[in-house]
């Protein structure tokens, strides 16, 4: 009988520590009463391990404060980096085909005057500068914070792989190169952490 009472008390105490609700007939009040009645408190017979109303209110208050505390729920650094980024428009013109991630069109198509300059949208390094069958003369720039900009269907490329460029610096001229084109325009893409972004959300054309 004594062993059962001891086990009952231990289980009740562990439940309190874990914040679990007590079963009917196995409340910590019962356990503490039994300990006092049997003189097994080891000098602490008057200690009550039950959760008071004040303790419950304190727990609720702490949880509420943590829910709205930015130090607890920090804003991801990636989100901060993207929000603080400043972009220069790659070209001034008219957007004729918008962004459509669900349709596989991961950028925007912009028309402008023939041979208009194409500019780097941010500081960065050229990681690709060459020809592809479908998109013609393409240049790709790696920027800080895992940002990548891509410029397709150019008439001519002005930068080579490995060159460092500044925001607003001329990198190409608008053209009509490649098989997937229906006239002179710039196809521009912006990628962040491996995912495409809608350029019109971050710059004007």
Automatic annotation (TrEMBL):
Domain spans labelled M23ase beta-sheet core: 104-199
Transmembrane domains' residue ranges: none
Alphabetized UniProt keyword annotations: Signal
A GO term for molecular function: metalloendopeptidase activity
Entry-linked CDD domains: M23_peptidase
Name the record gives this protein: Membrane protein
Organism: Geofilum rubicundum JCM 15548
Upper lineage: Bacteria, Pseudomonadati, Bacteroidota, Bacteroidia, Marinilabiliales
């Amino acid at each position: 009988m004594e062993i059962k009472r001891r086990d009952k008390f231990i289980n009740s105490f562990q439940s309190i520590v874990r914040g679990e609700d007590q079963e009917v007939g196995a409340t910590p009040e019962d356990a503490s009463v039994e300990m006092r009645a049997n003189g097994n408190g080891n000098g602490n017979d008057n200690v009550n391990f039950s959760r008071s109303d004040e303790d419950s209110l304190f727990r609720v208050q702490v949880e509420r404060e943590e829910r709205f505390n930015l130090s607890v729920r920090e804003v991801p650094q990636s989100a901060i980096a993207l929000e603080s980024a400043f972009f220069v428009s790659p070209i001034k013109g008219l957007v004729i085909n918008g962004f459509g991630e669900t349709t596989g069109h991961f950028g925007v198509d912009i028309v402008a005057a023939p041979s208009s300059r194409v500019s780097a949208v941010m500081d960065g390094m050229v990681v690709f500068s060459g020809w592809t069958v479908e998109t013609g003369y393409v240049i790709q720039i790696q920027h800080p914070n895992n940002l990548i900009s891509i410029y397709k269907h150019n008439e001519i490329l002005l930068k080579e792989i490995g060159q460092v460029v500044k925001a607003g610096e001329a990198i190409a001229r608008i053209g009509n190169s490649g098989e997937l084109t229906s006239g002179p325009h710039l196809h521009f893409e912006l990628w962040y952490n491996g995912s495409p972004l809608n350029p019109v959300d971050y710059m004007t054309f």
